[in-house]
Structures are given as structure tokens and as C-alpha cells.
Amino acid sequence: MKFYDIDCDGNVSYEEFIRGLRDELSARKKAMVDRAFDVMDMDKCGKLTVKDVCGRFDVTSSKAFTEGTMTKEEVLSQFLNSFDGLRGNNDGVVTKQEWTDYYTDLAISTPTDEYFVRMMEQAWGMAEDELDGAF
User: Fold this and answer.
1) How high is the mean pLDDT of the chain?
2) Backbone phi, then psi, for 123, in 5-degree steps?
3) C-alpha 81: how far from chain center
4) Per-residue pLDDT tens digits for 114-123
5) Where exactly are the structural domains of the chain?
6) Alpha-carbon gap, residue 17 to 6, rounded angstroms
7) Is the separation of the CB atoms in 97 and 84 below 8 Å?
8) Contact 79, 68 (CB under 8 A)
9) CA angle at residue 108 from 37 to 86, to 5 degrees?
10) End-to-end CA distance of the chain
11) CATH dotted code for 35-130
């Protein structure tokens, strides 16, 4: 029970159960996840903040922004909070562990390494062959 009950509330949610069943990322997927984080971490502090993602995330796709109910910074902070996962603290900051956990969870629903890599390339505007020692 302790293994699956991540938030220690005495219950095992579907998300907690799936998290417990997931495999680790393959070397190829892990390389892409690490590379994307490193590219995004503009100031190399080991965390992603609004400042890091402001040039890579288009806030005009947010209804709240276009309607004027949220500022650009609020939309970006909300976007970053989506990486928090089950133990999220909604602090508008994404640690490397939160980033890796997010993509490890997401990898469960990708059929192949190739699919995952193409998804990462499209999401973050980077190519796998830009990696040192590309696969």
C-alpha cells in the first residue's frame, strides 16, 4: 500500500496505481527527456520557470489569456504546474525530477520509442540528431 499510495491519503488512486506499474524510460527516451529539459533550462539553474518557457510556449492558445482573465505570466505558471504530477505543489517551477516523472508517466501511452521521440521533437522544437551520440 505504501508503494502505491504516493500522497499517503490511505487510498490508491488510478494515477497512483498506474505510476506504480510504469517502467523506467528507455535510454533513447531518457536522452530526449534530458535534452529537452537542458534546452528549456535557459539559465542552467536546474529548474524551469516562467522565464525559461516564455519564448517556447504560445500563450495565445489560452482562452483565459485571449479573454483577458489571465496574464501571460499566469498562463505560463499554470502550464508549468501541469508538470507537477501527483505530488505537485503548484509553485510554477518544474524540477528535473518533476519533468522526468511527467514524461515517464506519458511514455506509458506511447507505442514505441520512435513515436515518443517524434512527439518530443515536435513539442519542443528540437531534433534527436542534435543529441551528442545520437541514436
Assistant:
1) 86
2) -65, -40
3) 9
4) 999 999 999 8
5) 35-130
6) 9
7) no
8) no
9) 65
10) 39
11) 1.10.238.10
